[in-house]
Amino acid sequence: MCGVVGIISSNKPVAGELYDSLIHLQHRGQDAAGIMTYNERFHIKKGTGLIRDIFDEQNMSRLLGKVGVGHTRYPTVGGFSIEEAQPVYTHVPYGIAMAHNGNIVNYTDLSKEVVEKDRRHVNSSVDIEVILHIFAHAMESNDRASDSSEFFDQICDSVKTVYGRVKGAYSVVSTIMNNGMFVFRDPHGIRPLVKGERKNDDGSVDHIFASETTMFYALGFEPTGNVLPGEVIWVEEDGTVHSRIVEEKQFTPCVFEYVYFARPDCIQNDVSVYRSRLRMGQNLANNWKNKYPDVLPDIVIPAPSTANTSALSFANELGVRYSEGLYKNPFIGRTFIMPGNEERKRSVRYKLVPQEFEISGKDVLIVDDSIVRGNTSRQIVKMIKEFGAKNVYFVSACPPVKFPCYYGVDMPTRTELTAANKTNEEIREFMGVDILMYQEVEDLKEAVTRKGEHNIDRPCMACLDGWYVTGDINEQVMESMENQRITERSVLK
Ligand code: SF4
After folding, report:
1. Per-residue pLDDT, 443
2. Is 2 labeled as catalytic in the residue annotation?
3. Ligand 1 mean position to 394 CA, how many Å?
4. What is the model's pLDDT at position 159?
5. I want to staple 78 with a disulfide (CB 3.0 to 4.6 A). Which of 125, 139, 172, 471 is the partner?
6. Which of these ranges, 145-149, 211-215, 277-281, 451-455, has the smallest mean pLDDT?
7. In this model, does residue 493 exceed pLDDT 70?
8. How far is CA 313 from CA 242, 302, 318, 321, 440, in A?
9. pLDDT at position 166, please?
10. Which atom of ligand 1 lies closest to the CA of 252?
11. Share of the chain above pLDDT 70, in %
12. Is the previous residue joined to 399 through a cis bond, with omega within 30 degrees of 0?
């Protein structure tokens, strides 16, 4: 999972606002980040680690120009070095810079093809570079366009070539030297991409494209909806906007954005993430009342902080006190997106501190957003017990995660997923709780799609039900991606 942003302004430099935007997207990736702008030439700064550690006054002052792209990285394909940080760029046939959020399913084949057939040089193991070369190669086969309309046709044709060759999920934000910014989203719209506008005093309009709306308010942008699945949008330097749906398929945005990744104040695909989490808690509570009418906990505690919203509505629905019985140190990163399991295990106790007065002698119900590997949940339960809870119940706002994600979320190996290898009863025992209850798949879907003027056909829930919308995930692909992941991890050790 990554965060991506692009800003094109008619009258002011964008580097500062790209930095601010990345701060508002930091929760989507903490491994590396980069900003690339242009005026008469490209300017780039990339680094590993947190945004605030990469950028400073000196390197920001070099990022000149009114058009630029920013990226914060959480790796799914590729390693953890600066070479894998985005944006990436090429000078042929134009100066093109690109950043994306997503994952390519057929990366291994494509990276070979790009070198052997397209004769382009691949300089990293990051999948956006393959998209960049396929796009640039397609643009190269055109004669120079005589006007904007012809140039937009060429961009759309080249994106169509990308759609034809690149399988998977990707939202791409890109600049073309002297020609502004263009963006596109995969035909199923699996990864998010929102857009916004800001009117300037002189009547001109600035444009923003981002993974989430989280920075819009701070920067004065009004949300204007989403880049649609299969849509290409090109904003010229003079502010002229061109858009076209290049390919239409079933719209299946990632359900995990609502469960875990997106910030709750964000609207994605015209659905409020916060409201969807409230509905997850409601549905979960109704299910609890049906299954365990005689079990009423003394307090409901969220596993902070993604589960706070669902736990709040769960407690309300049950008529039980909501308690912040686990204090979260806000200065420690999200455990799920830290590379390496050892780091994850160690960090739970640094991050969460149980409050004895809230817990001791009580029947405690913990609400978590999901159980992926199960280690964090197990440690939370252990801590709650150590602080004197009588009975511990655990509910997950997300159904069992049984299948790997090949669309940009870091859970690719089946052996890592606890629900892929254990029954619910075995997981309950492993976690050491008295009752374990998961959200039903249909209830999660209902929570996301109940309200909002959205046009979601059905969220992607492949990690829950094994139905991969792109239709190209078979045993061979699974093995190849898992091996790739295992190799990358062993290189890191
Ligand atoms: Fe999101 Fe799961 Fe689909 Fe991956 S498989 S895109 S995590 S819903």
Report:
1. 98
2. yes
3. 23
4. 98
5. 125
6. 451-455
7. no
8. 43, 11, 8, 11, 17
9. 95
10. 3
11. 93
12. no
Cα–Cα distance list, 278 to 283, 299, 313, 369 (Å): 9, 18, 5, 12
Q: Which of 416, 449, 461 to mutate to test the pocket of ligand 1 (most atoms within 8 A of CB)?
A: 461
- Give ligand 1 pocket residues (Cβ under 6 A): 190, 254-256, 405, 407, 409, 460-463
CA 307 to chain centre: 17
Q: In angstroms, what is the span from residue 3 Cα to ligand 1's centroid?
A: 16
State mean pLDDT over 269-286.
97
3-state secondary structure the chain: CCEEEEEECCCCCCHHHHHHHHHCCHHHCCCEEEEEEECCCEEEEEEECCHHHHCCHHHHHCCCCCEEEEEEECCCCCCCCHHHCCCEEECCCCCEEEEEEEEECCHHHHHHHHHHCCCCCCCCCCHHHHHHHHHHHHHHCCCCCCCHHHHHHHHHHHHHHHHHHCCEEEEEEEEECCCEEEEEECCCCCCCCEEEEEECCCCCEEEEEECCCCCHHHHCCEEEEECCCCEEEEECCCCCEEEEECCCCCCCCECHHHHHHCCCCCEECCEEHHHHHHHHHHHHHHHHHHHCCCCCCCEEEECCCCCHHHHHHHHHHHCCEECCCEEECCCCCCHHHCCCHHHHHHHHHHHEEECHHHHCCCEEEEEECCCCCCHHHHHHHHHHHHCCCCEEEEEECCCCCCCCCCCCCCCCCHHHCHHHHCCHHHHHHHHCCCEEEECCHHHHHHHHHCCCCCCCCCCECHHHHCCCCCCCCCHHHHHHHHHHHHHHHHHHC
Closest ligand 1 atom, CA of 190? 6
pLDDT digits (tens, 9 = 90+) for 324-374: 999 988 777 655 555 665 665 566 777 889 999 999 999 999 999 999 989
Cβ(182)–Cβ(235) below 8 Å: yes
Kindly report the protein residue whose alpha carbon is nearest to atom 4 of ligand 1.
405
What would the two tokens of residue 288 be?
């609890």
For 375-400, what is the mean pLDDT? 95
- Catalytic residue, from 2, 254, 266, 463: name it: 2
